[in-house]
Amino acid sequence: MKVVLIEDELASSRRLQRMLNAFNYEVVASLVSVKSAIRWFQKNDHPNLLFLDIHLADGLCFEIFKEVKITSPIVFTTAFSEYSIKAFDYNSVSYLLKPINNNELEKAIQKANTFYKSEKELIELKEVIENENIQVYKTEFAVRIGKRIKIIKTDTIDCFYSEDNATFLRSESSNYITNDSLSNLEAKLNPKQFFKANRKFIINREAIVNVISYSNSRFKIELKNDDEAEIILSRERSRDFKVWFVT
Predict the structure, then answer these.
(1) pLDDT of 91 over the 50 cut
(2) How far apart are CA 231 and CA 222, in angstroms?
(3) Fewer CB near the last or first residue (10 Å), C or N of the chain?
(4) Is pTM, for the whole model, over 0.70?
């Protein structure tokens, strides 16, 4: 059976590919975006099965269906909560919650092969997701170290910071360059976990070790594993931080 994966998180894609290989499925393409998926489907025969993440780097996966008529059975993969997943149950759609396990993978494949997918059902699913305003935040980042790519879990990241026209993330006392700007990162991170302290820093709640009163009703933030960074909030950001930190 030939399979295509459309997933923008490298670690999730690699893990799913290993699991499918163990079931003797052949992964013929691993795609990362709406645009790359459209190009691939316009030029290639459609696979026996498609694994499709809902939120991709350049938009919702439903944008693919506007450009290409997909004939393959689909298994949607997602990091949605159990509560939000009602959108899928309502439409009888085959889906997998991340992290994926083997038992659920087998069930999802069986369901995908028996489910009749119509354009109407896909439109209804899209509308439910948009109306619920379901949001998914990044759970991992891929960083390049020489010729290697390392996957870093978001909850291990102490902060993101900009320096010398570049953006870095700090995890476990190490610094790694990332291609995103702080503005783009702010939209990808869970606002309950991360706070944009100023133009240079986005900080993780779990990394904060001290909040120090500073001049003019401002705060200074100290993070674990970092004795050098001076993170000072403006008066306005200090007010916002106070609300964020206690909720």
Answers:
(1) no
(2) 7
(3) C
(4) no
